Amino acid sequence: MKTIILLGTFLYVDEVDIELGFKKKKLAQQGKEINEHIKCSIDKYYMAYGFNWPYFSYGTKLNVMVVLNAFNPTYQQRYEMPSKVMNIMQSFITDSYDLYIAVESIEPDGSDVFEIYTIDLDKAYPTVEGPIFKYSWDAVDSFCCEGAMLAFHCRSSSKKEKINLNEILICYMLHGTNLYMWADDGKDKGL
Question: What CA–CA distance (Å, rounded) separates 62 from 138?
Fold first, then answer.
């Protein structure tokens, strides 16, 4: 069993081996000592956490996205973001199990941009894909507190649904008090 607890500024991911707890007495009788049946990992530098049953995801200070699956609690998926990514800002898991990750990146010319990456969690071997679109920091900086992204929401396209209603991918980004929208209509990949 895994538990995820947000306590103050710390994220605790505890793994409790319930079976080992029951077997402890029997193992002690055989001369084998078990000191713990709880494994704990603590991450203070996390951000951009998202949840949609059965997935929980969060980004680390080292620009790694960690994805936990409730149906496979002994396995943590880790996805390293591209080297140009400076900060994972937000993440969102859709009902079709697509993970969208909003990041701040530095372009080769030194300009700051926001980029959106995606991971299809339904694939046998999911990988980070993208950026699916990007927009400049300057496009939102003049309207809010240094361009910070305060919230992020996505609706995936309906191509993975049993009945495809031809709905397109739509992303909403909140910068300060301004709400921006991007739709994947096959045209411009900017804001």
Answer: 25
- Domain spans of the chain, in order of start: 1-43, 82-183
Q: How far apart are CA 103 and CA 85, in angstroms?
A: 7
C-alpha pair distances (Å), 5 with each of 48, 68, 70, 100: 15, 13, 14, 23
CB 116 within 8 A of CB 81: no
Listed residue (34, 64, 36) closest to 48, CA to CA: 64
At residue 143, what are phi and psi to the nearest 5 degrees?
Answer: -100, -10
Q: Say what the pLDDT of residue 166 is.
A: 78
pLDDT tens track for 146-187: 557 888 999 888 888 778 787 899 999 988 888 888 898 766
**Residue whose structure tokens are 């990456």:** 117
- Going by pLDDT thresholds of 50, 70 and 90, the confidence category of residue 79 is very high
Predicted confidence at residue 44, as pLDDT, reads 63
Alpha helices (H) in 129-190, listed in sequence order: 138-141
Q: Is 100 exposed, middle or buried (0-12, 13-18, 19+ CB in 10 A)?
A: buried
